[in-house]
Amino acid sequence: MLELLLLLLPVAAASGWWAARRSVSKQERTAAREWSPQYLKGLNFLLNEQPDKAIDLLVKMVEVDSETVETHLALGNLFRRRGEVERAIRIHQNLIARPSLHGQQRAQALLELGQDYMRAGLFDRAENLFSELAESRFYKRQALSNLLEIFQQEKDWQRCLETAERLKVAGERGLSSRISHFHCELALQALAESDPGVALAQLKKAAARDRSNVRVTLIRADIAMHAGDCKAVIKGCKRVEGQEPAYLPEVLPMLQECYQRLQQDESLLDYLQGLYSRHAGSELMLMLTDLIQNREGAQAAEAFVLKHLAAHPDLKGLDKLVTLNLQQTGAAGETLATLKQAVEQMLERQAAYQCEQCGFNAKKLHWQCPSCMSWGSIKPAQNGGVA
Ligand SMILES: [Zn+2]
Q1: Ligand 1 center to residue 63 CA distance, Å?
Q2: What is the whole-number distance in angstroms between the Cα of residue 162 and the centre of ligand 1?
Q3: Is residue 23 domain-resident?
Q4: Which residues pair with 353 in a beta bridge?
Q5: What pLDDT is attached to residue 50?
Q6: CA of 287 to the centre of ligand 1 (A)
């Protein structure tokens, strides 16, 4: 059916079908009910590449009764998907203006029109429509879902929370992670307004909604860092391994700084070596290499990198190996310098972060994927995609 409708689109667009529909007489409307064989004939003309004849027939098919409402809804939807939003809006507005529509049909047309407005960036109008629908009997969940999307785009986190709670009451499942992130967003807003008390209260709610939300741990560690509480930072950072080891690169610099401020270099090395035996990521390898170099010299560091590369070949390891060799450069210095340049260029093209839902590559960490809008799906890239 969809294929047929797609075939009809250019015909409908060119024919002025919608305009003609308004001027049809009552007798013609009655006649239209008897035109299904002709409609099929029209499709046949189309399929046989005789669009002119098909247009003549379709122009006569202007009646909007319970059957053709569905067709118009489907066509409006297709226009929107094709990016022809103005045309979709006209179709849906015309439908809504018809007094013959019953409740559910009107609600469906409102839902579609709201989506047209969203697509056109007319968020105020979309919000009004979805708010009306959210109070009605039909399409309540869809309306609330769309409202949630609008409030997320507007970064109105308080209303996101309220809407998510309403969605939950309406029967929607799997909202905990999103609600937890909304609390995190409110915590960050409070921090920006220099109100750490409110921020901590929001983080508590965020953790209550989703214990596995590593973002809560990272923000708490950040707050402790700003307060100069190194012990709390270390304790917080150590939780990341149990929650979501992929985010370890996010806390390594903080962890190193705090251990060093507390003059516990030995404990840092012990902890990182243990971590490396369980999660041999490239950022961790780089940090360990520097520590080994400081303690035992370049050769020991090089041996460590070589061992890492043998088990986990990656560009960062290769770059480190070349850098270590350049530092002890001999006759091969020029070749190494060229090799380093090439590796650096390749590293520049690597994405630091990647969405595990849609594959979106990013240079910085987004907690909501800008592409698929999932929360908490973008993680530090292990092997590096291309940004
Ligand atoms: Zn994504």
Answers
A1: 43
A2: 24
A3: no
A4: 362, 380
A5: 55
A6: 29
For tokens 């905990």, name the residue.
Answer: 176
Residue closest to 380 by CA, chosen among 246, 218, 254: 246
Residue 363 placed within a domain? yes
Beta bridge partners of 379: 354
Whether residue 202 is contained in a domain is answered as no
Side by side, which strands form the sheet with 353-355? 361-362, 353-355, 378-380
Taking 70 as the pLDDT cut, the residues of the chain under it are 1-67, 330-332, 383-387
For residue 130, CA distances in Å to 116, 124, 147, 166, 350 come to 12, 10, 6, 13, 41
| Ligand 1 mean position, distance from CA 367 (Å) | 10
Hey, which residues does 362 pair with through a beta bridge?
A: 353
Q: What is the DSSP annotation of 48-66? A: TT-HHHHHHHHHH----SH
pLDDT at 100: 82
Q: Closest Cα to residue 304, out of 293, 314, 315?
A: 293
DSSP state of 136: S
Could you tell me the distance, in angstroms and rounded to a whole number, from the CA of residue 70 to the centre of ligand 1? Answer: 33
- Listed residue (217, 280, 286, 300) closest to 256, CA to CA: 286
Asked whether residue 386 is assigned to any structural domain, the reply reads: yes
- Give the position of tokens 């399929």: 47
Structurally, the chain folds into a number of domains equal to 1
Domain containing 360 equals 350-387
Q: Which residues are annotated as a binding site for Fe cation?
A: 355, 358, 369, 372
Question: What per-residue confidence (pLDDT) applies to 334?
Answer: 80
Binding positions:
355, 358, 369, 372
Q: Which long-range contacts (CB under 8 A, 24 or more apart) does 87-96 make?
A: 87/13, 88/112, 88/116, 88/119, 89/113, 89/116, 89/117, 89/120, 90/18, 91/18, 92/116, 94/18, 94/21, 95/64, 95/69
Q: Do residues 108 and 138 make contact, with C-beta atoms less than 8 angstroms apart?
A: yes
Q: Judge contact between 237 and 255, C-beta under 8 A.
A: yes
Give residue 49's pLDDT: 57
Ligand 1 centroid vs 368 CA: distance in angstroms?
8
- What's residue 46's pLDDT? 56
